[in-house]
Design brief:
Blueprint: H1 2-5, H2 13-24, H3 50-69, E1 72-75, E2 84-88, E3 91-95
Antiparallel strand pairs: 1-2, 2-3
Helix pairs in contact: 2-3
Length: 101
C-alpha cells in the first residue's frame, strides 16, 4: 500500500520506524558490538525519518479509503494538495495526510 499510494520514495519504511523506536527508547545496539543494550547518554531531540512516517500515513489512508469506501485512485498530485484524488460510490474524495513537521 505504501508503494501504491505514497508519493514518498522510502526504502523499507516499517524497518525505518522500528529502528527509530529502538533508538528513541534508550535501548540501542551499536553496530559491531556484542548484542548488549546501551542507553543513550546524550539528551538530544530525536525525530523519526519524516519520509517514512509520511509514506506509512499515505499508505494507511489509501488502504482505508479503498476498504471502507471502495475507492480507486484517480490522481496522485506530486507535492501538492490534495495528496490523492479517489473515486468511490459515485463520489470524489480529496485525501490529505498530515505529515510531521
Amino acid at each position: 500500500m505504501i508503494s501504491k499510494y505514497s508519493e514518498q520514495l522510502v526504502y523499507r519504511p516499517l524497518e525505518e520506524m522500528q529502528y527509530w523506536f529502538a533508538y528513541s527508547s534508550g535501548a540501542f545496539l551499536e553496530p559491531g558490538y556484542p548484542p548488549l543494550f546501551y542507553s543513550r547518554t546524550e539528551h538530544k531531540v530525536i525525530t523519526p525519518n519524516k519520509s517514512a512516517v509520511a509514506g506509512i500515513g499515505e499508505g494507511i489512508a489509501g488502504f482505508l479509503a479503498q476498504r471502507l469506501y471502495q475507492c480507486r485512485k484517480l490522481a496522485r498530485p506530486n507535492h501538492d494538495y490534495p495528496d490523492i484524488v479517489m473515486e468511490g460510490n459515485g463520489k470524489t474524495y480529496l485525501g490529505r495526510v498530515l505529515k510531521p513537521s
